[in-house]
Amino acid sequence: MSLPFYIVDVFADKKYAGNQLAVFLEAENLSSEEMQQMAREINFAESTFITKLDRENNKAEIRIFTPAHEMQFAGHPIIGTSWVLINKIFDNSPESITLNVPIGPIQIQQSEDLIWLKAAQPKFWDIFSKEDFTLFSNLKKEDFENQFPIQEVTTGSAFVMVGLSSKRALENLVLDKDKADQWMKNHCKTDHRGLYFYYLEGSKLFSRMLCIEHNQLVEDAATGSASTCLEAFLLKYHKPEFELTNYQGDYIGRPSQIFFKGKLTENQFDINIGGKAQFVAKGEWEA
To answer: What confidence tens digit (pLDDT) does each residue in 10-45 have?
Structure first.
């Protein structure tokens, strides 16, 4: 069986930056095991599989896999898959489409060269002490910012938000893989576990997302799902309305820009993240 696929770089203003994504079309006859094997073979942070396409109504169903497991929601795969659908698959490059993912329908808008997604309502889970993080990192007490809590947040995939006091602390961050893995297994509420470290400076965010996959410490170039959680977090604790740019991936040679546009009104979160995608390649995959 031969499947067409595309490769795009997401949250990138040029090729070979941002976060890589493989998008597989005509995947409705693949088993979950086959999708997982293909995602592991290509070994990007995530790959998507389009399992249903409604060209008349500009809708699609997709599944999202990391090399290790399936995701219920992930931002850069949704942004990148939407770019492929709008610019390569659907007729007349529609400005809005709907993607169905395991957590439900996601509304997508294309505005000029930006793809925007609207995230689900967030959930705010446990708050943690700074001392926990000094046990499995090189961070010292003065490296943490003091305005906001350290908290696990989810909009479909969960991440622990960890604010730092300087860009230097973010740049020099080192984790002990085994101790960090054990802490996350003991404290995070879902099987998907990630730490999102950030430094807020005016209208700019600088961030790093680290997690454990296949017993390896992995850093992501651009994490849309974590960005929706961080946007919700900042709406709750920082400002009820803002626009800013989140810079991620600088420390692994894949600079990324994730645009935030959010508003909190009477406990309703309007969470939007946007980004550019760059077309890299297309081909046929022998499944």
So the answer is: 999 999 999 999 999 999 999 999 999 999 999 999
Structure-token pair, residue 186: 């003991």
Task: Output the average pLDDT for the chain.
Answer: 96
Question: What residues does 23 pair with on adjacent strands?
Answer: 6, 48
Q: Nearest CA to 195 among 203, 204, 176, 214?
A: 176
CA-closest candidate to residue 8, choices 92, 65, 87, 124: 87
Mean pLDDT confidence for 64-81 = 94
- What spatial distance separates the first Cα and last Cα of the chain, rounded to whole Å? 5
Report the CATH number of the 2-118+275-286 domain. 3.10.310.10
pLDDT at position 287 is 82
46 flagged as catalytic? yes
DSSP structural state of residue 4 = E
- The 10s digit of each residue's pLDDT in 222-279 is 999 999 999 999 999 999 999 999 999 999 999 999 999 999 999 999 999 999 999 9
How much of the chain is helix, strand and coil, in % rounded to 5? 25, 45, 30
**What residue spans define the domains of the chain?**
2-118+275-286, 123-274
Distance CA 85, CA 92 (A): 11
* Residue 220, token pair as written in the block: 């992501």
The pLDDT score that the predictor gives to residue 128 is 98
The CATH code of the domain at 123-274 is 3.10.310.10
| Residue 188 CB neighbours (<10 A) | 20
Q: How many CA atoms lie within 13 A of 263 on its CB side?
A: 3
Marked catalytic residue, from 26, 46, 61, 70 = 46
